[in-house]
Amino acid sequence: EKTVVIAPEAVAALAPAGLKKSITTMANGKSVEKAGINVEAVPMKNLTLTRLRFHYKGRGNGYVMTFGGKWVYLSGDTKDIPEMRALKKIDVAFVCMNLTYTMTPEQAADAAREFNPKTIYPYNYRGSDTAKFKKLVGDASEVRLRDWNGK
Residue 85: which domain range? Predict the structure, then answer.
Protein backbone atom coordinates (compact mmCIF):
# COMPACT_ATOMS: atom_id res chain seq x y z
CA GLU A 1 0.00 0.00 0.00
CA LYS A 2 2.99 2.35 0.35
CA THR A 3 4.50 1.27 -2.94
CA VAL A 4 4.62 3.99 -5.58
CA VAL A 5 4.36 2.90 -9.21
CA ILE A 6 4.87 5.41 -12.00
CA ALA A 7 4.09 4.27 -15.52
CA PRO A 8 2.90 5.45 -18.91
CA GLU A 9 -0.77 4.89 -19.73
CA ALA A 10 0.08 1.95 -22.04
CA VAL A 11 1.58 0.07 -19.08
CA ALA A 12 -0.96 1.19 -16.48
CA ALA A 13 -3.79 -0.08 -18.68
CA LEU A 14 -2.37 -3.62 -18.48
CA ALA A 15 -1.87 -3.65 -14.71
CA PRO A 16 -3.90 -5.97 -12.49
CA ALA A 17 -6.92 -4.30 -10.89
CA GLY A 18 -5.39 -4.50 -7.41
CA LEU A 19 -2.34 -2.54 -8.51
CA LYS A 20 -4.11 0.19 -10.49
CA LYS A 21 -4.84 2.31 -7.40
CA SER A 22 -1.10 2.57 -6.70
CA ILE A 23 -0.17 3.74 -10.21
CA THR A 24 0.52 7.33 -11.14
CA THR A 25 0.34 7.61 -14.92
CA MET A 26 2.66 10.02 -16.65
CA ALA A 27 3.10 11.28 -20.20
CA ASN A 28 6.32 12.61 -21.75
CA GLY A 29 7.18 16.03 -20.34
CA LYS A 30 5.17 15.66 -17.13
CA SER A 31 6.67 15.75 -13.63
CA VAL A 32 5.52 14.56 -10.25
CA GLU A 33 7.00 14.33 -6.78
CA LYS A 34 6.47 11.13 -4.83
CA ALA A 35 8.14 10.16 -1.55
CA GLY A 36 10.59 13.05 -1.84
CA ILE A 37 11.70 12.04 -5.34
CA ASN A 38 11.02 14.34 -8.29
CA VAL A 39 10.24 12.27 -11.38
CA GLU A 40 10.14 13.68 -14.91
CA ALA A 41 8.87 11.52 -17.77
CA VAL A 42 11.10 11.94 -20.82
CA PRO A 43 10.73 10.49 -24.32
CA MET A 44 11.78 7.00 -25.25
CA LYS A 45 11.11 5.77 -28.75
CA ASN A 46 12.31 3.96 -31.83
CA LEU A 47 13.38 5.99 -34.83
CA THR A 48 13.28 3.55 -37.72
CA LEU A 49 10.00 2.99 -39.56
CA THR A 50 10.18 -0.78 -39.15
CA ARG A 51 10.45 -0.44 -35.37
CA LEU A 52 8.07 2.45 -34.66
CA ARG A 53 5.32 -0.07 -33.94
CA PHE A 54 7.24 -1.16 -30.83
CA HIS A 55 7.94 2.24 -29.27
CA TYR A 56 6.50 5.33 -30.91
CA LYS A 57 6.89 8.72 -29.22
CA GLY A 58 4.49 9.05 -26.32
CA ARG A 59 3.75 5.34 -25.86
CA GLY A 60 6.37 4.92 -23.15
CA ASN A 61 8.69 6.94 -20.99
CA GLY A 62 12.22 7.23 -19.85
CA TYR A 63 12.59 8.95 -16.48
CA VAL A 64 14.86 11.50 -14.87
CA MET A 65 14.64 11.26 -11.09
CA THR A 66 16.08 13.83 -8.72
CA PHE A 67 16.70 13.07 -5.06
CA GLY A 68 19.39 13.78 -2.49
CA GLY A 69 21.01 16.23 -4.88
CA LYS A 70 21.52 13.49 -7.50
CA TRP A 71 20.09 13.16 -11.00
CA VAL A 72 19.33 9.61 -12.17
CA TYR A 73 18.25 8.71 -15.71
CA LEU A 74 16.43 5.51 -16.69
CA SER A 75 16.34 5.29 -20.48
CA GLY A 76 13.41 2.95 -20.99
CA ASP A 77 13.37 0.92 -24.22
CA THR A 78 14.70 3.57 -26.56
CA LYS A 79 16.97 4.17 -29.49
CA ASP A 80 19.74 6.75 -29.56
CA ILE A 81 17.40 9.76 -29.61
CA PRO A 82 18.13 13.50 -29.55
CA GLU A 83 16.25 13.89 -26.25
CA MET A 84 18.70 11.49 -24.56
CA ARG A 85 21.72 13.24 -26.05
CA ALA A 86 20.41 16.59 -24.73
CA LEU A 87 20.32 15.48 -21.08
CA LYS A 88 22.45 17.48 -18.65
CA LYS A 89 23.74 16.99 -15.10
CA ILE A 90 23.07 13.24 -14.96
CA ASP A 91 24.92 11.55 -12.11
CA VAL A 92 23.81 7.97 -12.79
CA ALA A 93 22.33 6.63 -16.04
CA PHE A 94 20.72 3.26 -16.66
CA VAL A 95 21.03 2.82 -20.44
CA CYS A 96 19.29 0.02 -22.36
CA MET A 97 21.10 -1.96 -25.00
CA ASN A 98 19.31 -4.80 -26.77
CA LEU A 99 18.30 -5.17 -30.39
CA THR A 100 15.73 -5.19 -31.91
CA TYR A 101 13.96 -2.81 -29.57
CA THR A 102 16.74 -0.55 -28.30
CA MET A 103 20.39 0.20 -29.16
CA THR A 104 23.57 -1.55 -30.18
CA PRO A 105 26.57 -1.14 -27.85
CA GLU A 106 27.98 1.35 -30.38
CA GLN A 107 24.82 3.48 -30.43
CA ALA A 108 24.46 3.42 -26.65
CA ALA A 109 28.11 4.37 -26.10
CA ASP A 110 27.95 7.18 -28.65
CA ALA A 111 24.88 8.68 -26.96
CA ALA A 112 26.38 8.24 -23.49
CA ARG A 113 29.56 10.04 -24.49
CA GLU A 114 27.42 12.99 -25.58
CA PHE A 115 25.21 13.39 -22.50
CA ASN A 116 28.14 12.37 -20.32
CA PRO A 117 26.71 10.93 -17.10
CA LYS A 118 29.16 10.39 -14.25
CA THR A 119 28.24 6.69 -13.92
CA ILE A 120 26.48 4.34 -16.34
CA TYR A 121 24.86 0.97 -15.77
CA PRO A 122 23.91 -0.80 -19.01
CA TYR A 123 20.72 -2.81 -18.54
CA ASN A 124 18.24 -4.81 -20.60
CA TYR A 125 21.27 -5.97 -22.56
CA ARG A 126 20.62 -9.69 -23.07
CA GLY A 127 22.89 -10.81 -25.89
CA SER A 128 24.71 -7.46 -26.17
CA ASP A 129 28.43 -7.06 -25.57
CA THR A 130 28.64 -4.97 -22.39
CA ALA A 131 32.45 -5.15 -22.33
CA LYS A 132 32.48 -3.57 -25.79
CA PHE A 133 30.11 -0.86 -24.56
CA LYS A 134 32.43 -0.13 -21.63
CA LYS A 135 35.46 0.07 -23.93
CA LEU A 136 33.64 2.40 -26.35
CA VAL A 137 32.56 4.75 -23.55
CA GLY A 138 36.18 4.88 -22.44
CA ASP A 139 37.04 7.43 -19.77
CA ALA A 140 34.04 9.66 -20.52
CA SER A 141 32.02 8.00 -17.73
CA GLU A 142 32.48 5.25 -15.18
CA VAL A 143 30.73 2.16 -16.56
CA ARG A 144 29.60 -0.37 -13.97
CA LEU A 145 28.72 -3.78 -15.35
CA ARG A 146 26.24 -5.93 -13.44
CA ASP A 147 24.62 -9.28 -14.19
CA TRP A 148 21.04 -7.99 -14.33
CA ASN A 149 19.88 -10.85 -16.57
CA GLY A 150 21.24 -13.76 -14.55
CA LYS A 151 23.11 -16.70 -15.96
Answer: 27-143
